[in-house]
Specification:
The chain contains 10 helices and 10 strands. The protein is α/β, with parallel strands linked by helices. The chain has 2 domains: 1-85 and 172-251, P-loop containing nucleotide triphosphate hydrolases (Rossmann fold, 3-Layer(aba) Sandwich); 99-170, no CATH class. A 6-stranded mixed β-sheet has the order 6-7-8-3-9-10, with helices on both faces. Helix 7 links the parallel strand 7 (174-178) and strand 8 (205-209). Helix 3 (101-109) runs parallel beside helix 6 and helix 7 runs parallel beside helix 8. The longest helix is centred in the last third of the chain and has 16 residues, at 186-201. The two termini are 20 Å apart.
């Protein structure tokens, strides 16, 4: 269970800026994710979404301040940031194919284990070791009975849920999800969305990056929109969906407040998204 006491304030980012040489990928971005809140981060391809995540997590050099529950981690290494409560999932489930479902979760439980011990203990099967999976975790993600199965026997949707489950065992304060619905059909995406919403309702903060607008607008409390590395809109799903700046970013329409002709046809995926996932 995620701790939702007043001591937890979640993730706060101020003035995040990421540069690659002379190219500014992220420019002066402010963003907050409170416990129990899902914040969507969307934008056209190349808007700077992944660069923002990599910068916040310390994988990419950046300017600005990052705090987790009020603790500054601006200059911390990625493993230190993870231990302080900021975890991520990847667009690809990134599972160990030679390990079982339970062993993949066990990797997340003990992230500080020496690599040599990990290799000896798992890949070489030198000893019979106990797999540690928190009680109820597999059941919560509808993976009960699959503890000893290989990840390859799971559907893509189940693999995505396994990736989320593995991230949760370190008890994060905020979880950053990088395109979790990539490759999923609409039914699988809605199923994933229901699980994510349940986690938020239990107190977990989440930053969701995805191109599935039905998922984003269906489960997010707030949405932040990036274009060319800058925030062009932020607000509730309904506020962002009706923003002329957002429509212009996705449809190429002039930002003059007039509705683009395509806005009534569902071409962007913005205006046709529903709240059915929630």
């Amino acid at each position: 269970m995620v701790d939702t006491t007043d001591a937890r304030t979640g993730l706060s980012v101020r003035g995040a800026t990421v540069r690659y040489g002379g190219v500014v990928a992220v420019s002066d971005v402010d963003l907050d994710v409170a416990p129990g809140e899902i914040v969507g981060l969307i934008g056209p391809n190349g808007a700077g979404k992944t660069s923002f995540i990599d910068g916040v997590l310390g994988f990419t050099p950046r300017a600005g301040e990052v705090t987790i529950d009020g603790r500054t981690v601006s200059r911390a290494a990625p493993h230190r940031i993870a231990r302080l409560g900021l975890e991520r999932t990847w667009q690809s489930p990134d599972l160990f194919g030679d390990l079982t479902v339970g062993e993949n979760i066990d990797v997340g439980i003990r992230p500080g284990r020496p690599v040599r011990t990990f290799v000896d203990d798992v890949f070489r099967r030198r000893s019979r070791r106990a797999v540690h999976v928190p009680p109820g975790l597999l059941e919560a993600f509808e993976l009960d009975g699959r503890l000893d199965d290989a990840p390859s026997t799971l559907s893509l949707g189940q693999q995505k849920l396994l990736g989320v489950a593995r991230a949760l065992v370190s008890d994060p304060i905020v979880l950053l999800l990088d395109e979790p619905a990539a490759g999923l059909d609409s039914t699988e995406s809605r199923h994933l969305g229901r699980h994510l919403r349940r986690l938020a309702d239990d107190g977990l903060g989440m930053l969701l990056v995805d191109h599935d607008m039905d998922l984003v607008f269906g489960i997010c409390d707030r949405v932040v929109v990036l274009q060319f590395g800058r925030v062009i809109a932020t607000g509730t799903p309904s506020e962002v969906r009706s923003s002329p700046a957002v429509m212009a970013a996705y449809l190429g329409a002039p930002d003059d407040g007039d509705e683009h002709p395509s806005a009534t046809t569902g071409n962007s995926g913005i205006e046709k998204s529903t709240e059915g996932s929630r």
